[in-house]
Amino acid sequence: MTEPVLSLRGISKRYGPLQVLKNVDLDVYPGEVVALLGENGAGKSTLSGIIAGSRAPSDGTMTWLGQPYAPAAPRDAIDKGVVLIHQELQLLPHLSIAENVFIGRWPMKNGMIDRAQMVHRAQEQLARLNLHIPATRKVAGLSTANQQLIEIAKALALKARLLILDEPTAALGGAETEALFEQVRKLRSQGVGIIYISHRMEEIRKITDRIVVLRDGERVHEFADSSTPVRTIVESMVGRSLDRMFPALPEPSSRAVLQVSGLSSPDGSFRDVTFEVHAGEIFGIAGLVGAGRTELVRAISGADPISAGSIRLEGMELKLRAPSDAIAKGIVMVPEDRKDQGLVVGHRISENIVYANLDKLGGRWITAGMKRVFAEKAVAKFGVKGRAEQYASDLSGGNQQKVVIAKWLMREPKVVVLDEPTRGIDVGARAGIYDIIVNLAKQGVAVIVVSSDLEEVLGVSNRILVLAQGRQAGILTRGEANDVSVMELATI
């Protein structure tokens, strides 16, 4: 094999007394896709940041094409040909797609930005990803999936020699994921080295050549063959045997808690949707990107308006003008984007939990002691790995998600809606969230789970509603539902 394009030796990173990386070695060769796996908090993002110049190592050395490599800033890495696509979106919503793709490196003509060239080149990158949106359109208002594809288009436009993809398909559906894989294969054939970070085991097996596993900041295993059994890889990640992923589901009651009848949205994103969710039932919603899944549950949760139909809770029709109306009636929602919509990441865990429960603490005044006791109860009850006074920004993705779930479940709701509950979360943390979902059902709560991960929606649902282009394609029982039957309905 040729010399590696990137070599890391003894890379360590400390934040005060906390060591998050310990003597990590890694080689990436031209034209290979290396999977970098590990639980949340294993050090994957820290290592990626060091390679991409956003963090400096405490110890260790790096070489790029055989020469010493120590980027002082992301621009230094980009200039070398190292590009990182972050899991968290980095777009500027009030700029156009083309401006976001070429920000900081505008195509120039006669001393001015060549906007025609910029739009043309951006449109070419979007077409490579089968994203048919005018490059002149502003990013604001685009779906999370489309914004993720724009992030990828930025990297493609940079003509990277080493590309780091951090959870690139977390918000993508099947067609978008395949378009991305096609580009990854093309880049690999052109000699580009790729570090691929994902929690989706099946895509790791499909797209990568080699697997490196981190655990607690250390490199613990390398699998030379990506066809290694998933169970073996996952057990290496978590450091223990996995007996099961999805817990056994309870039998739901015959009592309908939530009834949705003929529901339609003003913009046509979903039309004439009818279903009911029973006490103790986990009701899955599946469909391709753009099918209207998120729009539907946002309407049920009072975040978006409806143009027709009704929503009934325990037989009583609801008039929801805002999320606060739904919350007051006992319907809560854990949104798809936890950092943008679910948390105030710059505030403490305790503050985030209390914000959603001010009325539960009672009285006009809330003391620091009341806040701490309430938050500590939530942290312990829902298995958040963190102290109540820690900042939410310091937590791993899995624990941030548990905080969002905890703050709503402390209200003891009647209906819980979870939109992409395990997006960007490692296998070990997923199991904990599945346990929370099933325990809710055991307590008689009606649970709705929206997921683009087909294995997940099949694994946790008693029944599954399948949407196709905003229309209700069908509702499958647990016995009827499998990957084939769901996809047949989703592609009608």
Automatic annotation (TrEMBL):
Report the principal subcellular site: membrane
- Which keywords has UniProt assigned to this entry? ATP-binding, Cell membrane, Membrane, Nucleotide-binding, Repeat, Sugar transport, Translocase, Transport
Q: How does it sit in the membrane?
A: Peripheral membrane protein
The GO terms describing molecular function are: ATP binding; ATP hydrolysis activity
Determine the domain of life of the protein's source. Answer: Bacteria
Subcellular location per UniProt equals: Cell membrane
Enumerate the Pfam families for this protein.
Answer: ABC_tran (PF00005)
Q: Where is the ABC transporter domain?
A: 6-241, 255-492
- The answer, when asked if S-adenosyl-L-methionine is one of the entry's keywords, is no
Provide a GO CC annotation, any one: plasma membrane
Q: Which family does it belong to?
A: Belongs to the ABC transporter superfamily.
Annotated protein name in UniProt: Sugar ABC transporter
